[in-house]
């Protein structure tokens, strides 16, 4: 069985590393690494042995205080090097060899596109040298890089550049020093040939910071968005948190070969090109938004993650949940707060709610793991961000800020826990937050039930809320949670009413704290009929069950003044309509409530097109599936298509008028982006309107051909290519010919065609895997095929199991190349408990067969084993 690391087994390290000096002789085939570690025992007596983690290292030499260490003094184990009888204080020198060109895991030091670079989080540093590779072991690093000047003209590492020189015979070197003690997971080096786009930022205290983005020559013109976003993020963190950047320069390096989105290495971020590059010709509006938020996210880590780091990997959400919350708030301030919140909740519901409801459910702070890479999950990130948001909502911005100030001043330079975080927030804010610890410890999405009653005579309205959290694997019994409920009461015209409870005047919007299994509140002075608007802004990551849904939703979908809540109720109407249709497919669509809600939107020109686009986008098939005990894959697809068609028929003329009227020149402000998004929604409806379809196809083809930006081009392209009644082979060819040399756009060529919901897509996927431009070593490309395939409900969930089997075979192959990416993709196999009996059997069969294979990675083995529990 699989060996687990457990939270309860945490022990502080026996030794600290006082200073780390590394010297690299870089070469793609064989790189030599010399490490000099100055160690000091933290115990009164040194222990019997000390283990340095190491993986896939060829040890050439080992010295202790200058003396060669005899073979009897150490052992090489699977996990690393065990040194016997370590002295109280000593210097260890090791010389090892590593092989970047054959490192297809993309963890440790690897070669990609002629560049040498590193990824160390979570445990990649041990693939570079023997080390105490744990986040609570902090040291200042000095790093000297030697390389051939022709192939690797630029040599980068963390911190400040101290010296450079030549080595003779075409070699050169550079020495970097990072004065801020850091754990090894934040180490980075990069060697290669780049163009550098530069800018600078003057901090609040007047220091000038050099900003540098390193990209391959062909990407030279696509760096402006990243630099702008970075400067805005730096200014925002000063304004909102008082946090200033601390080194002389901030470097960002872009690579096409990266497992994650990006990595916050101190002073030297390494980014997946997907989240750095943006030009109108190649990037969509969503890409622009993603670049902004990921650039900000990695920047914000400089304080939440780097300056204050983690004691152990169980605390991962301490930096990730907090930093996601920070980047969401940054984006909300840059763009539309309401639309941002809707997007964040969509993501939470698409990825985290299903995770929390299935075999992979785990607390935001897990209790145990086999492979920590498997815990970079939606739960740790997105639900973790929701917990921080609830604390923020509870404290209000000023007290939250005071708490964060206390957190930074107490723990700067330390490796800490989630308890430390809460205690600092308590000290700074003066509020008791202990109950929030339960949100970190308890898995599962709580259900909140709402009931209310109004007495017009006495003018009182009583609201009763109750909570329960369903059992999850390994956690049968659940406790009550502190749940902030942002609430308003709306009269028939949608006006907010004053909130009075007892003698307290709470304004027209307030936050109630639900801390008991059941609680009620009585509001007074309400002589007009009211409807409660609950969980405004999605004030807690729960599922709301309201007893008055049939009455409240149509009203709130039209009148709620909270944009999230209005959208939420609009979605609820659509969901009710779709589930009703699945139960009774002869029913006419759209029914009165939804039709009226849409009519209310379409009766006026869309002043806020981005928000209108959100309202008029139907819930995804996945989200509909989440609403059902057993996911009826085919019925959901059929119902959603029918409703789309029905809405298109009723509102076709308005949709056409909007499509035409919303056209405008390409700009990158929020209004222009919103227009483009709404036009895309309009076009998608027009294509399923029988009367307007031919005109719509012509318009889509024209939009594809004439757009001067990728947002509009890709929107039209995707709709046409995914329309299974339309022959788009000519578009596929044209798109390929135009973009074959641009990897990020070519990824779209791969993924878009796999969105066609027809059986032939299985065959298409198999062909794409042997396409000359397919590369198993590049995660973006792999995801553009396997990820897109698994997201296609019709093909992946084919009733005969062919989709699962095909997918399983590819995962098996990928596991031999890149276990981290294979394990991540394999998590879709956790969906079986909610499938019908036939599909469930097929999916379980694929899991069992995969799990039996020899030589599985620890990553994949753990995911499969948890899927089988
Ligand atoms: N690079 C990942 C992130 O920033 C892990 N730290 O979320
Ligand atoms: Zn992060």
From TrEMBL:
Cofactor(s) for this UniProt protein: Zn(2+)
An individual GO BP term: proteolysis
InterPro entries: Aminopeptidase_N-like_N, Aminopeptidase_N-like_N_sf, PepN_Ig-like_sf, Peptidase_M1, Peptidase_M1_dom, Peptidase_M1_pepN, Peptidase_M1_pepN_C, Peptidase_M1_pepN_C_sf
GO molecular function: alanyl aminopeptidase activity; metallopeptidase activity; zinc ion binding
Domain (Aminopeptidase N-like N-terminal): residue spans on this chain: 104-186
Enzyme class at the top of the EC tree: hydrolase
Pfam families documented for this protein: DUF3458, DUF3458_C, Peptidase_M1, Peptidase_M1_N
EC number(s) on file: 3.4.11.2
Origin superkingdom: Bacteria
UniProt keywords, alphabetically: Aminopeptidase, Hydrolase, Metal-binding, Metalloprotease, Protease, Zinc
Limits of the Peptidase M1 alanyl aminopeptidase C-terminal domain: 555-867
Annotated Peptidase M1 membrane alanine aminopeptidase domain residues: 226-439
Domain Peptidase M1 alanyl aminopeptidase Ig-like fold: 444-546
Catalytic activity: Release of an N-terminal amino acid, Xaa-|-Yaa- from a peptide, amide or arylamide. Xaa is preferably Ala, but may be most amino acids including Pro (slow action). When a terminal hydrophobic residue is followed by a prolyl residue, the two may be released as an intact Xaa-Pro dipeptide
Keyword Zinc attached: yes
PANTHER family recorded: PUROMYCIN-SENSITIVE AMINOPEPTIDASE (PTHR46322)
Similarity section: Belongs to the peptidase M1 family.
UniProt name for this protein: Aminopeptidase N
Organism: Acidithiobacillus caldus (strain SM-1)
Species classification: Bacteria, Pseudomonadati, Pseudomonadota, Acidithiobacillia, Acidithiobacillales
